[in-house]
């Protein structure tokens, strides 16, 4: 599903953010990326959804070479990738429902189908009673669940999460982790960048540790039910 | 990339992807308009500020235009005084009058041709010297010349056209002298050109200021919503899909601002400027200022719409690079 071949990326000439990364993540895998701040976790994720182009090497998503995509092709790639962030990136002026429906509006779904699918997804997240609230009136955990609903509503092939629990307490962390696991069970490949040890211990299947832009360690705890690589 | 076994599609996935009625821009126009209307509702403060700015900016420009158009009209009226007089040293018979009148009227530029007989000339002379009638003692009509007074067409009141007309007139035999107040015509046209130049400079300055203010206001409002652009790009929206509602919003803001400006201008005009002519008593004959011609009103509304559209387009270019 995800392949990186000798990928290097330098924001500036002499300071490389990623250095010669070789990585293969199979369909249906659940992977944690960890490492200290500045190790290159976020940069790696940004490469995967086409927000950055590598200075050297190839990034393949589902067989497509992201590093060679034209700007017009990137949106199409992103329709099969859900992304969540530490700061949720919800639109403050729109309701929970509208925040989630954006994903399907972009795909051109009809209004009735959007309504059904969004309600279904929000129900899975336990957010169905808050569809008409704006994000400011939600707790951090609730906001992250809305962001997850937005990322998962179109059943993406890949879910990328950048420090998704950085702003959350333990109860909320578990909830979020469970949502990741459910998505993974439904067939979505999940990549979570975090340095939250607790999250990794509870959810870890495959752990990749980055440091100074390089992969320094790869561990596999057990073969989960979703893994087929 | 098929090294991994394909999983069966999850049951919750809808079987076919439903679409909106009609693909492409036409089918989605309804969606874009709806989106931009709810954007306006959801960002009401920002929109009120933008529309207010556009309204004030266009109101200033249209007030200036109103004054300028009225000055032009006044100048047109003053230019009625551009008149050429052809003198004859004898009284003309009715036949001569008719043939000369048609010859004069045939010269390009002539509008009205009016014959002034000796008696008429004396009458006017008397009227001018009212109160000093003693000066006219012994003056008989025979010593006064007869004349044709020729008023000029609107387009032929500039110095060159008048001079060309006069030289044409001088070729007609029998005319003893031609007068047309050269100095006055020259001064009047110089003043007119100066007024137009100042008007154009002021107008250009105003338009540049308006463009600057409006485009920066729109830029700030889009900057305030750059998260929205980012999120849209994250969920896979094409550039056009992201831009379209913002552009429609710009058009609505520009159009609404222009219509409001016109409404305010009309209110100002009806309330204050309508009677400004007699109010300022600079010309008791004039019936006050007139409102902008309807073509100008259309042009201002259209330019408001363009202003909103182009302002949004150029601002979006800056922020959509995700």
Helix content of chain A: 25-40%
Provide mean pLDDT of chain A, rounded. 89
The CATH topology of chain A, please?
Rossmann fold
Q: How many angstroms separate the termini of chain A?
A: 9 Å
Amount of beta strand of chain A: 25-35%
CATH class of chain A: Alpha Beta
Describe the structure.
The complex is a heterodimer of chains A (229) and B (322). Mean pLDDT of chain A is 89; it is low at 223-229. Chain A is built from seven helices and ten strands. Chain A has a single domain (27-50, 72-220), classed as 3-Layer(aba) Sandwich (Rossmann fold), CATH 3.40.50. Chain A is an alpha/beta fold. In chain A, the strands form two sheets. Chain A has a six-stranded mixed β-sheet with strand order 6-7-8-3-9-10, with helices on both faces. In chain A, strands 2-1-4-5 form a four-stranded antiparallel β-sheet, covered by helices on one side. In chain A, α3 (96-107) crosses α4 (111-124) and α5 runs parallel beside α6 (170-185). The N and C termini of chain A lie close together (9 Å). Chain B is of the alpha+beta class. Chain B is built from ten helices and four strands; from the N terminus they run ααβαβαβαβααααα. Chain B has helices at 24-42, 44-78, 94-106, 118-128, 159-170, 182-224, 226-234, 239-271, 276-280, 294-319, and strands at 83-88, 110-116, 146-152, 177-179. In chain B, strands 2-3-1-4 form a four-stranded antiparallel β-sheet. The two termini of chain B are 27 Å apart. Classes of the chains: A alpha/beta (229), B alpha+beta (322).
